[in-house]
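Okay, can you check this protein?
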Amino acid sequence: MSKMFTSAEKHLKSRHRAELRFRWMGRLAILFSLGFLTIMLFSIIMLGKGALNRAEIALPIDLSIEHVDPSDIEATSFSKLVRNALFEAFPEVTDRGERRRLLGLVSANAQYELKDQILETPSLLGQVQTLWLTASDDIDLYEKGEVDITLPQDQRRLKDLEISWLKTFEANGQLRSVFNKAFFTSGDSREPELAGILSALIGSILSLTICFVLSFPLGIMAAIYLEEFSKKSYWSDFIEVNINNLAAVPSIVFGLLGLSIFLGVFGLPRSSPLVGGMVLALMTLPTIIIASRAALRSVPGSIREAALGMGATQVQSTFHHVMPLAMPGMLTGSIVGMARALGETAPLLMIGMVAFIVDLPQGFTDAATTLPVQVFLWADSPERAFLEKTSAAILVLLSLLIVMNIAAIVLRKKFERRY
C-alpha cells in the first residue's frame, strides 16, 4: 500500500513539475515577444524623434525699398534676396562651385518662407532684418549630430568648407534647432526637410470613412441574415465557406479587383479615397461578418425564446433583444477590421494611390495617398534624411492603431450588457 502511495506521489510531483515547466515556457515566450517588441519600438522611436526638429539658419536680409517694393511685393525676387544674404555673409567665396554649395545651406523653399514672413509682417520692410530660414536636409542632419565629420571628406556629403561655414554660423548664434511643425501641417515633398504627413493623414481618414460607411452596415446586415434568418442549405453553406475564404485572401488580390472593376469598368477616379475606401471595404467585409456572426452566436438562445414567447416577431426578437447584446462584439470586430484596413498598402498601390501627392485632398474624388503608402514611398527614397521621416510616420500610424484598439475596448465596455 505504501508503495502505491509513493508511486502516486512521484507521479503527482512529476505532473506538477511538468506544469511548472509549461508555465515558465509560456512566460518566457511572452517575455521574448515583449523584448523584440520593445527593441523594435525603441529603434523606431530613436530614428523617428529627429523628424520632430529641424535646423534653421538666421540671415541678415536687406528688405529696403531698393530691393522690395511695398506696393508690388509679388514682383520681388525673393530667391535673389536669400542669395545675396548668403554671399554677403561669406564675401570671400567667389568660386562658382563653392557658391553653389553655399546656396545649398538653406532649403529650396527658403524664398517662399521669406515671402510668407514679409506678407505676414509687413513692418519688416524698409531695413535689414535677421530672419530664420529652414536649412537643407544635409545641414539638418549635421545639426542633429548625424554627420560623422571624422570621416574622410570624400566619404560624406558635407565637405570641410561647408562645415567651416556652419561653424561660423554656430559661433554667431545663427544656427538653431526648432520644433518641426511642418511635419504635421504640410504634404509630401521631394525635399526631406519640407516633407510632411498631413496629405497622407487626410487621405487615410477619407479612405477609412468610405470603408466604414460601406463595410459596417453591409457586414452587420449580412451577419444578421446569415445567423438569424437564413435557413441551413447548400447555398448558405457555400456562402459561409466563401466568406471564410475571402478573409484569408491576400490583400493585393482586392487591389487587383479594384483596378479591374472600379477603375477599368466603372471608370472611377484613379488614386482617389473613394476607390481606396471601396477596395478596403471589400477587404474588411469578411472580417466584420465573421466577428458579427460570432457575437450573435454568443447570445444565449434563451433570449430569443423568451422574446418569441412574449409574442415578439423574429425581426423584433433579433433587433430589439439579440442585436443590442451582440453589439459590443460587432463594434469590436468592425474596429479591428478598420485598424487592419488603416495599415494596408498593397491594395492601394494597385489603384494608383502611390502617386506623389503634394496638395491636400479636398474631397473623396481628389488624388490622395495614405499613411502606409507614404511610409513605403519615403522608405524607398535614397535621401538619408527620409529615414527619420519614415520612422516618425510609422510612429504616427502605430499611434492611430493603438487609439482604434483602445476605442474598441472602450466601446465594448460601454455597450456591454449583462444577462
